[in-house]
Amino acid sequence: MNANLLILDGNQVAAKIKEQLEARISRLATKGVVPCLATILVGDDPASTTYVRMKGNACKRLGIKSIRIDLPAETSTDQLIATIKQLNEDSEVHGILLQHPVPHHIDERAAFDSISIDKDVDGVSTQSFAQNAFGFAAFPSCTPAAIMAILEYYKLPVSGKHAVVIGRSPILGKPVSAMLLNKDATVTTCHSKTTELERFVRSADIVIAAVGKPNFVQGDWIKPGAVILDAGYNPGNIGDVDYEACLPYASAITPVPAGVGPVTIATLLKHTVDSAEKKQGI
Amino acid sequence: MNANLLILDGNQVAAKIKEQLEARISRLATKGVVPCLATILVGDDPASTTYVRMKGNACKRLGIKSIRIDLPAETSTDQLIATIKQLNEDSEVHGILLQHPVPHHIDERAAFDSISIDKDVDGVSTQSFAQNAFGFAAFPSCTPAAIMAILEYYKLPVSGKHAVVIGRSPILGKPVSAMLLNKDATVTTCHSKTTELERFVRSADIVIAAVGKPNFVQGDWIKPGAVILDAGYNPGNIGDVDYEACLPYASAITPVPAGVGPVTIATLLKHTVDSAEKKQGI
């Protein structure tokens, strides 16, 4: 391990975000407003159930109301969209989160895109993506926003750096590529069809692992001094990065767990409070 | 110049696209439908006036109706949007093009985004961008679509190739990066804040110049065998690529003029016909 290695502590970043939220939630309370996040879980995937529970608990601890809607695995796309539309209309709900992934027979994209952009605190809709890619106001997807928040918290420079994003999903690889580009990084987006992936990673100042394969990124792929953010969450709390193998090369790295994960949840809470404030004209 | 150099002839690609459109336009005529493109020009910038005239002439030659709306330079954003909304409502209009750029006092993004997605044949709205980035149906921005059409026409492989896009504008650099990524290229998006631009270009299999600086891309930046597409259109019909200097290195290159330009116009016509057919349920 190199002497100057910085472990990017997601719990610390999340604590800072939550601390700032507490004052804002108290202020909303004086106006009789309680920020409210509605979470929809379709089916009973164990990992998804855990995530939804974690998000609900995080809301509760901070004084954000959470509504949990559990739908059976056999729910149709139309039924799911009808549920979302009810929540769009519900004036007490400030944020709507549809837990990804939904069962295969559901058109997840249609469901995501039925979430009103004002309540899309998870930043999953097509319109939210585009607004963010073009640098407008809209809630960015939470994991990409968490990655940016960690870089900002630790004052790690992005402008002019070469960022290599491994993964191109609509809720992670594509939006984080867009957000890094908007912060003036030179961004390379890699994926399963990339040839010579190692070559790209070796030239990266910032590596974003968003590939969904445990311990995928190898230590000897890392340019000495690179910053590594691991957005992977594989079964068993294993990241996409071979953490121990990368320690000798990285200048900064997120652990898994306690890296990107807690900041993602804090970002979701922040967006919910942002939405509640916006509705109040604050 | 290397012996196997392929000059990517935009006129040839455009002619092929137009040939396919003729039959479709005739078929629409039997149903009493004439595809119609409305073009809005705000102010009297000479280059923009030329582009609008070229597009109008191209429509006329193919049997597409064109409506040209000239607005004074002092038009407000609200007035422009009101004009666009009238065209959105007009059932005889299948495509709406707002000539870029508009005078500085106008919120161009708001104007672009007021174009109905069904009629956004120039692919400039935020929603059109996002739908394309995610690989859905929507009209892609015309110049990026023209670049992809040239690659396809000449059967130049994209999957697994390293594409370097120089430029990140909302109507060119960002959408062409997204479209190349969706065709499985590994895409690096470079821009004014990129350090060591030459290094990125030197590793590219496909170079997209979309920077708006005459003769910017130098010959000795080009990896031997690279494919170069020049989307630049600088005053005096000068591209972004130093064409002569790149000839010894490239395996294929678009000239300026007669490269990307004519295919962009043909793509605009194609989208207008697509829109007319879609409205007829064809």
Automatic annotation (TrEMBL), chains A, B:
| Gene Ontology CC | cytosol
Q: What is the reaction catalyzed?
A: (6R)-5,10-methylene-5,6,7,8-tetrahydrofolate + NADP(+) = (6R)-5,10-methenyltetrahydrofolate + NADPH; (6R)-5,10-methenyltetrahydrofolate + H2O = (6R)-10-formyltetrahydrofolate + H(+)
Which residues belong to any copy of the Tetrahydrofolate dehydrogenase/cyclohydrolase NAD(P)-binding domain? 141-279
Q: Where is the Tetrahydrofolate dehydrogenase/cyclohydrolase catalytic domain?
A: 8-122
Pathway membership, UniProt: One-carbon metabolism; tetrahydrofolate interconversion
Q: Which CDD domains match?
A: NAD_bind_m-THF_DH_Cyclohyd
Lineage top rank: taxon: Bacteria
**A Gene Ontology biological process term:** purine nucleotide biosynthetic process
Q: Could you say which EC number(s) this protein's record lists?
A: 1.5.1.5, 3.5.4.9
Sites where the protein binds NADP(+) = 167-169
One GO molecular-function annotation for this sequence? Answer: methylenetetrahydrofolate dehydrogenase (NADP+) activity
Alphabetized UniProt keyword annotations: Amino-acid biosynthesis, Histidine biosynthesis, Hydrolase, Methionine biosynthesis, Multifunctional enzyme, NADP, One-carbon metabolism, Oxidoreductase, Purine biosynthesis
Q: Tell me which Pfam families the record gives.
A: THF_DHG_CYH, THF_DHG_CYH_C
Q: What does this protein do?
A: Catalyzes the oxidation of 5,10-methylenetetrahydrofolate to 5,10-methenyltetrahydrofolate and then the hydrolysis of 5,10-methenyltetrahydrofolate to 10-formyltetrahydrofolate.
Family the UniProt entry places it in: Belongs to the tetrahydrofolate dehydrogenase/cyclohydrolase family.
Query: What PANTHER family does the record tag this protein with?
Result: C-1-TETRAHYDROFOLATE SYNTHASE, CYTOPLASMIC, C-1-TETRAHYDROFOLATE SYNTHASE, CYTOPLASMIC-RELATED
Q: How does it assemble?
A: Homodimer.
Q: What name goes with this protein?
A: Bifunctional protein FolD
